[in-house]
Amino acid sequence: MADHKYEKWIQKDDAIIDGIDVSGEWNKMYEPREIMNYDLTYMDKITDLDGGESMGWCYQCAQCIGVCPVDNVGSYGPRKIYRNLQTGQNLFEHPDLWLCTTCSNCLRVCPKEVDMMKIMPAAREQAVLDGNVPAELQDMLQNVAEYGNPMGESARKRVRWLRKFDEPVRDLSKEENPQPVDVLWYVSDYFSFHGRGNDAAKSMVRVFNRLGVDFGILGKEEKCDGDSQRLVGETGLFEELAEHNGAQFEKYEHNKLVVSDPHAYNAFKNFYPKVTNKEYNVQHYTQFLAEQIDDLTTLMKQPYPKKVTFHDPCYLGRHNGEYNAPRTLINAIPGIDFMEMFRCKEQGYCCGGGGGGMWLDGLVADHTSERLSENRVKEAIEVGAEVLAVCCPYEVSRFEDAVKSTNNDGKLEVIDIIEILDYCIDNGDGS
Ligand code: SF4
Ligand code: SF4
């Protein structure tokens, strides 16, 4: 045999098959080379976790890669995570553990039901227990544990946005003998503490009041809903928050919980019952208002003649199947020119804030070519929109930052749907 690089091959020096001379090199066959001789310790550790089982079901069809928003700006997706685990990677100590935004787009297309929404929290919980948490996320978790909100603000500052605000709002935590309300409005962290969130919160109050909604808030007794903390693996903290908020929902009699935040909606509807053994009659504000569309339409007199597109929040849309309520509100806005982006509804793109991404911009920036929010803002501009309408409190701040960082200042306004409704009502009837 001639000199050769590989040991494991066979070759017949003389071979004629069907009259064709395939001697020597032409019939060389390599023996199967070992491609699975890797350490599967970490694959086994993931699939052994409660919730991690489905990682082992992947059969590498790659359907997930095309729809993964992180792969769109980097190299990611369940298939790649599976393959890396298969070749011995320790996911528990790898940045890939934190890049998934739990947007659920891969699960939508996966024929094997590989479920990152269960795998990621399970694997992250282990990383949290081992102390392998990115510093920026650790700060957020500490703030929530200590203060009940990711910003690290004191509980009494939760209602600071109500100062110098003339509209009536019942803060139930301040009432000596609180009477029942029809709607208990869970304001949420970003609406309570973030400047632009405060704008939307005030709009919500004005719209509620114009509609005559009997509502109250928890004030200083409200705490973070905990859904993002659950998704980054802080199960204990999530349970504490669920117990705390669940107790407030019990304390203040109401017919309906209305939330500003799709993450809170997801938590109260799907995950609090597992902790508190109670079901919650909860609606996202777009659902609550969509039920009153006739009254709203009557109130909205001021036209809003702008080109508007809408970003579906993953936790309202894909996670909970609500695509119509926000569109019902948008389509009722007088004078609006509404246009969909290419990636919308079930296929909506992710803003990057879910699954803890809200507090991982530094780590994500190190492993992607651009932020997901930047990618989305460019799409909104490409479709010809002047306004990007949203209905998740994370998104105004995320997309406003992205407008600036992509040098699109002045080209795209980011605004919560509730602010548009408020504009059309308050400027329309002069009330
Ligand atoms: S879609 Fe599912 S089965 Fe296919 S590669 Fe992705 S995770 Fe694996
Ligand atoms: S949940 Fe979303 S971000 Fe995470 S892997 Fe699946 S598609 Fe990618």
Helix % is 40-55%
Structural category? alpha/beta
Radius of gyration: 26 Å
**Continuous helix count:** 20
Q: How many discrete structural domains?
A: 3
Average of pLDDT: 94
By DSSP, the count of extended strands is 13
Principal-axes shape call: elongated
Sheet with the most strands, sense and barrel status? 5 strands, parallel
CATH class of the largest domain: Alpha Beta
Beta-strand percent range: 5-15%
What does this structure look like?
The protein is α/β, with parallel strands linked by helices and 431 residues long. It has three domains: 41-129, Alpha-helical ferredoxin (Fumarate Reductase Iron-sulfur Protein, Chain B, domain 2), CATH 1.10.1060.10; 137-290, Rossmann fold; 293-429, Rossmann fold (3-Layer(aba) Sandwich), CATH 3.40.50. 43% of the residues lie in helices and 10% in strands. The protein is built from 20 helices and 13 strands. A five-stranded parallel β-sheet has the order 5-7-6-8-9. Strands 11-10-12-13 form a four-stranded parallel β-sheet, with helices on both faces. Strands 1-4 form a two-stranded antiparallel ribbon. Strand 10, helix 16 and strand 11 form a beta-alpha-beta unit. Helix 12 (235-251) crosses helix 13 (262-276). The chain is elongated, with a radius of gyration of 26 Å. The model has no long low-confidence stretch (mean pLDDT 94). One iron/sulfur cluster is lined by residues 67-70, 76-78, 100-106, 116.
